[in-house]
């Protein structure tokens, strides 16, 4: 399936699992209901500053 996204930013565990399974990076806002999600493509964030850091990190790996 083609998702047309470079990275997903969300807190929903079902979206995180689906896109990570498709090898798309996910920045997942920590919430009690998604703490069981673990995948190399899932990157955690507590706030928007951490989201920016994760995006910068992902961008540096693409260079």
Can you describe what's shown?
With 63 residues, the protein is of the alpha/beta class. It has one domain. Helix content is 38%, strand content 17%. The protein contains two helices and three strands; from the N terminus they run βαββα. The protein has helices at 13-21, 48-62; strands spanning 8-10, 26-29, 42-45. The chain has a three-stranded parallel beta sheet, with helices on both faces. α1 (13-21) links the parallel β1 (8-10) and β2. The radius of gyration is 11 Å and the shape is globular. The termini are far apart. The model has no long low-confidence stretch (mean pLDDT 94).
Relevant terms:
63 residues; alpha/beta; 3-stranded parallel sheet; 38% helix; globular
Q: What does the largest sheet look like?
A: 3 strands, parallel
Could you say which overall geometry the principal axes of the C-alpha atoms support?
Answer: globular
Write down how many β-strands occur, each being a DSSP E stretch of 2 or more residues.
3
Structural class: alpha/beta
What is the H/E string? EHEEH
Please, how many domains?
1
What is the terminal-to-terminal distance? 26 Å
Mean pLDDT: 94
* Rg result: 11 Å
Kindly report the spatial arrangement of strands forming the biggest sheet: 1-2-3
Helical fraction equals 25-40%
The proportion of residues in beta strands is: 15-25%
Q: What's the total helix number?
A: 2
Question: Unreliable segments (pLDDT under 50, ≥5 consecutive)?
Answer: none
């Amino acid at each position: 399936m083609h998702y047309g996204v470079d990275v997903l930013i969300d807190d929903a565990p079902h979206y995180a699992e689906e896109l990570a399974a498709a090898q798309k990076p996910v920045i997942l806002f920590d919430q009690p209901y998604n703490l069981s999600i673990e995948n190399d493509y899932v990157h955690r964030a507590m706030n928007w500053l951490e989201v920016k850091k994760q995006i910068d990190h992902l961008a540096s790996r693409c260079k």
